[in-house]
Write a structure and sequence with these properties.
Largest sheet: 6 strands, mixed
Shape: globular
Radius of gyration: 22 Å
Helix content: 25-40%
Number of strands: 21
Length: about 500
């Protein structure tokens, strides 16, 4: 008997909070990468910016370099020159190269912190920031129209031989770029021992190399390429980084610096191996910029980020702007408001004096600079610097729970939960009345507040099929009660 397989409909490709991501060989295929690249090519062509070219980079995930070459071939067929990474690089290096070269756009093949089975397609604007809604609407319209059609491509080797492809290694230029705003020599001279955890990702080797040649000692874990990421999601949060925390806990190190799989997100841990959560990192960075850099420009934070920002804003006279989740919102808002920094709960931070895009390597180096300055002020070891932050910015007990959902059922479940969560909204949290409820502007969920400033956020991920439940509370007990209530609300609904 002959079985005739049905021809599947073209994949519906939608860019979430940070690019399009999907499972390799399921939806993330060479054909769909060509469709995405065709969208970028159409955007560049519609603006008459062929000559400016496009930067194409990739991470260490399975076959990323081959997917990147596939994307480049589509651009090259439209006579758009390509600057192509000579090897896997951190995602922010594409932002740096776009700005440095004056390119029309950038493409990065990466799924960031997603499971090892996934890959993804990120787009950078000419400013180096994540492509905003105005660019993504053009891309998505083109992608929706090109499904099932043959997309022209030019063989990569042929185009390279014709001089349309330039291979680039960003390290030297990036180091020079860093020195405009950071004293690398002072960091190198510090007599301390730092543990770096790049999580097998494309950030491996960068911090040790940038800090080489001085008294500082840097030990790096998991620097080899491993597309399996040791069996964990390459996101620098617990329990994924528990091995690094245990290493710190055994002694001999002054602090730990963490990166995610494509190194655009950062994290840290103190000398005891205690994780410094992402909301604390936001507070530390804002404190560093106002206290040690003397800056008073605005700050941008996503809706799932710390209330310490507002308290520090009042203390130092700094305006704080809030956006939906995703650097496609944070980056443009930074540019619009002339912000000194922008950040989100996932550990991504951008800086007005650097790039309006997340850079985990730069963030980690700024944290290192902060802790060294705190040491000079008598607040050492790192745990004492954290305690000082909370003395001036208030408490921050934070937790996030991810409720995983079947991918196929996710869209319908999201629509249903948006109704049911509103209908069954909590009236109390941690024994206190809910004083305010905010519906997220992107229709992604709800945020509930109580009088002491503690909050519960329930939102739907824009990059994975899961519902995220977050809380920031003023005590450990309140945090535990609020996160339990949020998880029950989601699972019950």
């Amino acid at each position: 008997m002959t079985i005739i397989a049905e021809v599947p409909a073209p994949t519906r490709i939608v860019f979430g909070t940070d690019g399009w991501r999907a499972k390799v060989a399921d939806d993330f295929t060479f054909e769909n990468v060509r469709r995405c690249a065709d969208g970028v090519a159409e955007y560049v062509a519609s603006r008459g910016e062929h000559a400016r070219g496009v930067v194409v980079a990739y991470d260490r995930r399975f076959a990323s370099e081959h997917f990147a070459m596939t994307a480049a071939e589509v651009l090259l067929a439209r006579d758009i020159p390509v600057a192509f990474a000579a090897h896997a690089v951190p995602t922010q290096m594409s932002s740096y190269e776009v700005v440095e070269r004056g390119a029309a756009a950038g493409i990065v093949i990466t799924a960031s912190h997603n499971p090892w089975t996934d890959n993804g397609f990120k787009v950078k604007s000419a400013s180096g920031s994540a492509a905003g809604p105005e660019i993504l609407s053009v891309l998505e319209a083109r992608i929706a129209a090109n499904g099932g059609t043959a997309i022209e491509r030019r063989p990569f080797a042929d185009a390279e031989a014709a001089g349309l492809v330039e291979r680039f290694d960003p390290f030297t230029g990036y180091e020079r770029f860093l020195r405009r705003t950071l004293d690398l020599d002072a960091l190198r001279a510090a007599d301390i021992h730092v543990l770096v955890e790049p999580m097998w990702g494309s950030g491996a080797g960068w911090i040790p190399r940038l800090l080489a040649g001085g008294r500082i000692r840097v030990t790096e874990l998991h620097r080899e390429r491993n597309p399996y990421f040791g069996g964990v999601n390459p996101e620098p949060i617990r329990p994924n980084i528990d091995e690094a925390l245990a290493t710190l806990g055994r002694g001999g190190y002054d602090l730990g610096l963490l990166l995610d799989g494509d190194a655009d997100r950062a994290g840290a841990a103190d000398e005891r191996g205690v994780f410094i959560h992402q909301l604390q990192v936001f507070g530390l960075l804002m404190y560093y910029l106002v206290e040690y850099r003397g800056l008073r420009d605005p700050v941008v934070k996503s809706v799932n980020t710390t209330s310490m920002a507002e308290r520090l804003g009042v203390r130092y006279g700094v305006a704080v702007h809030e956006t939906p989740v995703g650097f496609k919102y944070v980056g443009p808002k930074m540019i619009e408001t002339g912000s000194m920094m922008g950040g989100e709960e996932s550990g991504g931070f951008g800086f007005g004096m650097h790039l309006p895009e997340r850079d985990g390597i730069y963030t980690d180096l700024l944290l290192l600079d902060l802790f060294l300055r705190e040491r000079a002020a008598g607040r050492w070891p790192v745990s004492n610097a954290i305690a000082h932050l909370h003395e001036i910015a208030g408490p921050s007990f934070y937790q996030r729970v991810d409720v995983h959902v079947d991918r196929a059922a996710y869209p319908a479940l999201k629509d249903r939960l948006l109704v049911e969560l509103q209908r069954s909204a909590p009236t109390t949290l941690a024994g206190q009345p809910v004083s305010r409820t905010d519906a997220l502007t992107t229709r992604d969920g709800f945020k509930f507040f109580i009088a002491d400033g503690s909050w519960l956020l329930v939102r739907f991920s824009g990059t994975e099929p899961l519902v995220r439940v977050y809380t920031e509370a003023t005590s450990q007990a309140a945090m535990e009660a609020i996160i339990a209530a949020g998880e029950t609300l989601v699972r019950g609904a």
